[in-house]
Amino acid sequence: MVKVNKIKDNIYQIRVIDKENKNFHGCIFPVIDGSSYAFYLIMDEQVTLVDTIDDIYYDEVLPEIDKLLNGRKIDNVIVNHVEPDHEGSFALVMKDNPQANVYTSKAGIKAMQEQFFKEYNYNVVGYGDSLNIGKYNLLFMETPLVHWPDNMWTYLQEEKILFSNDAFGQLLVDDVVYDEELDKDKLLKYSREYYANIVMPNNKNVKALLTKFANVNWDIELICPAHGIMLKGYIKDMLAQYQSFANNTIIDNKALVVYESIWGNTKLMAQSIVDELVSKGYEVKSYQLSKSRISEIMDEMMDTKLLVLGSSNHNNCILPPVADFLERVKATHFENRNGIVFGSYGWAKIPFNDLKERLAAAKFNILTEPIIVNYTPHQEEEKTIKDEIAQVI
């Protein structure tokens, strides 16, 4: 579904809501409700397109763009972020508008050339640069490695609008225009999961950016992200939530028990661990990886102090869902977290030290040696599991 939302008489959001697309960012980010993508068109003396969209949606959005242009050509294309969900149709836009000037960061130009193998009318912009397009002035600021090295923001000075691309996005597919049409808690919940899976790996850069942004003299009344809903009423709440995430706010008594089990023995161990943690006053959530949505688990990981990670032995290796989860944890660069590993085995104990070492390589403080059980944990072993947990937490 394509929606055109008028922001001002001459400023438009073009938004695609795809409720069938349950894999945001390719296969790595499963979502519940679907995905949404937005870009923006400014009809001034110079027609300016702020980002484009994935080429799979181009045929849907082109008629809407043509209606708004009403015979005019695009003079400028702003590339805030080169990722294909934002610039996949860039070459198609430029084919119809070969005269258009392109404005992006230095890293953006390099990445665009590598993607499209063609030299367009590229112009490097960064903080302190501006572009006059008639009655409006666009200001720029690089936001490198908040997501990718090329990221930047564009600010429409006269209307106090920030085009933030991936920053401040959410996984909302609601057919509303502005955040104030939604419950604030819902907005922040969907923003949190988005942050956990897209932004969190670059948390240190977010913290530095927010410090810089606090000193930028931009009075913002509207934030226009590339995913989700435009922000008007809850801007301060969104910024406060980002600041909390960037500060690595952790709940000391929060624990996650994450595991995979073949025949249920590691699952029995997980339940004993949960019971012991709860008895010691921990806020605990437990997830069997094959029966859970990984994006939700990564969301819960953001403020979790203790991760208890379990796997059965499979051909002397940890189970594939656990290996996948470890790669995500490693890539997210969590800080000041504790870890315990556990699992059940049949005839070999081989994978558990590997599991411990891989979690340690992800910068977790490992509290104890692996807690392991041969086949099914009997009553005495369940007590031992609980005792081992109690000794280190």
What does this structure look like?
The chain is 34% helix and 27% strand. It is elongated and about 80 Å long. It has two domains: 2-246, Metallo-beta-lactamase, Chain A (4-Layer Sandwich); 251-392, Flavodoxin domain (Rossmann fold). It has helices at 58-69, 84-87, 90-96, 106-116, 184-199, 203-214, 235-246, 265-279, 294-301, 320-332, 351-361, 379-392; strands spanning 2-8, 11-18, 23-24, 29-30, 35-43, 47-50, 76-78, 101-104, 121-124, 130-132, 137-142, 152-156, 161-165, 222-225, 251-260, 283-288, 304-311, 337-345, 364-366, 371-374. The longest helix has 16 residues, at 184-199. 42% of the residues are buried. Strands 1-2-5-6-7-8-9 form a seven-stranded mixed β-sheet.
Describe the structure in brief.
With 393 residues, the chain is α/β, with parallel strands linked by helices. 34% of the residues lie in helices and 27% in strands.
Which features characterize this protein?
393 residues; alpha/beta; Rossmann fold; 12 helices; 34% helix
Secondary structure: elements and pairs:
Blueprint: E1 2-8, E2 11-18, E3 23-24, E4 29-30, E5 35-43, E6 47-50, H1 58-69, E7 76-78, H2 84-87, H3 90-96, E8 101-104, H4 106-116, E9 121-124, E10 130-132, E11 137-142, E12 152-156, E13 161-165, H5 184-199, H6 203-214, E14 222-225, H7 235-246, E15 251-260, H8 265-279, E16 283-288, H9 294-301, E17 304-311, H10 320-332, E18 337-345, H11 351-361, E19 364-366, E20 371-374, H12 379-392
Parallel strand pairs: 6-7, 7-8, 8-9, 13-14, 15-16, 15-17, 17-18, 18-19, 18-20
Antiparallel strand pairs: 1-2, 2-5, 3-4, 5-6, 10-11, 11-12, 12-13
